[in-house]
Amino acid sequence: QVQLVESGGGLVQAGGSLRLSCAASGRTFSSYAMGWFRQAPGKEREFVAAISWSGGSTYYADSVKGRFTISRDNAKNTVYLQMNSLKPEDTAVYYCAASPAGTQEADFGSWGQGTQVTVSS
């Protein structure tokens, strides 16, 4: 298991940008695929983006493709989510997650506590 702590959430106007960070504990961070998910009030949790252990492969939900970028720094045990051109519908609690295997949601067994992102219109 790996412990995850998200930061970087906040309130931003539509069209603005935020960068979320997720710091992981443990020396095996570089062996985990990492992902970002979000949950809006009254809605199911949904996949946002994922990145392979090496950073060589990235995956995005269609709703954020071209606006969000996931990256990782294995030397810092940190994964990032750069969010540009934010829309009110991006408002949600964003969760970081780690997977020792694949990048399907069911593969992610370690989760952070979440960070709130609010986009005003």
Give an overview in words.
The chain is mostly beta strands. It has no helices and 11 strands. The protein has strands spanning 4-7, 10-13, 18-24, 33-39, 46-51, 58-60, 68-73, 78-83, 92-99, 110-111, 115-120.
Describe the structure using short key phrases:
4-stranded antiparallel beta sheet; mainly beta; 121 residues; 11 strands; 49% strand
Helix and strand composition category: mainly beta
Give the tally of β-strands.
Answer: 11
- The overall pLDDT, averaged over residues, is 95
Compressed to H and E, one letter per element, the order equals EEEEEEEEEEE
Q: End-to-end distance, in Å?
A: 39 Å
Task: Tell me roughly what share of residues is in helical segments.
Answer: under 10%
What would you report as the Rg, rounded to the nearest angstrom? 13 Å
Oligomer: single chain
Low-confidence residue ranges: none
Estimated share of beta-strand residues: over 45%
What composes the largest sheet? 7 strands, mixed
Which shape, going by the Cα principal axes?
Answer: globular
The number of helical elements comes to 0
Task: Outline the secondary-structure elements.
Elements: E1 4-7, E2 10-13, E3 18-24, E4 33-39, E5 46-51, E6 58-60, E7 68-73, E8 78-83, E9 92-99, E10 110-111, E11 115-120
Parallel strand pairs: 2-11
Antiparallel strand pairs: 1-3, 3-8, 4-5, 4-9, 5-6, 7-8, 9-10, 9-11
Quick synopsis:
The protein is mainly beta. It has strands spanning 4-7, 10-13, 18-24, 33-39, 46-51, 58-60, 68-73, 78-83, 92-99, 110-111, 115-120. Strand 7 (68-73) and strand 8 form a beta hairpin.
